[in-house]
Amino acid sequence: MSDAPEKSPRYDQGMATRRSVLGDSYVDEAQKSKTAFDEPFQDLITEAAWGHVWSRPTWSKRERSMVTIALLAALGHDEEVAMHVRATRNTGATPEDIMEALLHVAIYAGVPAANHAIKIAKNALRQMEGDSEREEGR
């Protein structure tokens, strides 16, 4: 018998949504690097963020993506901004959508926050474009 507790249906839904947004390779890497120390946190975000919020049918993944990018930019969470910009390849949010979200950040959270997030987004989009070109060149 295993000591690992059963995961809830909400966890399973969250993991499916997390994979559909962030991609299998990102989630596989996060799962591989988790330890006993951070496993409770990983379970929490999988159930709460991905299972409860991102899995709701009211908004599309595109809409959630834009709101998430704006909130993360406003709060100065740079790594998360880059991660969620990269996730737009799976959510359907376009570079134009990202810019619209960051224009809202400029007005409602401040120009410095938006300016910094725009730099992060430009870099992430540039990397994504390079990844696409490499994939097409195979």
Descriptive notes:
The chain has 138 residues and is mostly helical. The chain has two domains: 8-58, no CATH class; 60-138, AhpD-like, CATH 1.20.1290. It is built from seven helices and no strands. The mean pLDDT is 94.
Number of domains: 2
Q: How would you describe the shape?
A: globular
Q: Class by helix and strand content?
A: mainly alpha
Radius of gyration: 16 Å
Percent helix: over 70%
Biggest pleated-sheet summary: none
CATH architecture label of the largest domain: Up-down Bundle
Report the oligomer.
single chain
Low-confidence stretches: none
SSE string, helix = H, strand = E?
HHHHHHH
Question: What's the CATH H-level homologous superfamily of the largest domain?
Answer: AhpD-like
What is the percentage of strand-forming residues?
A: under 5%
Query: So what's the CATH class of the largest domain?
Result: Mainly Alpha
- The name CATH uses for the topology of the largest domain is AhpD-like
Question: Please, how many helices?
Answer: 7
Instruction: Tell how many strands the DSSP assignment holds.
Output: 0
Distance between the termini: 46 Å
Question: What is the mean predicted local confidence, pLDDT?
Answer: 94
List keywords for this structure.
138 residues; AhpD-like; 78% helix; 0% strand
Q: Nutshell version of this structure?
A:
With 138 residues, this protein is mostly helical. Helices cover 78% and strands 0% of the residues. The protein has seven helices and no strands.
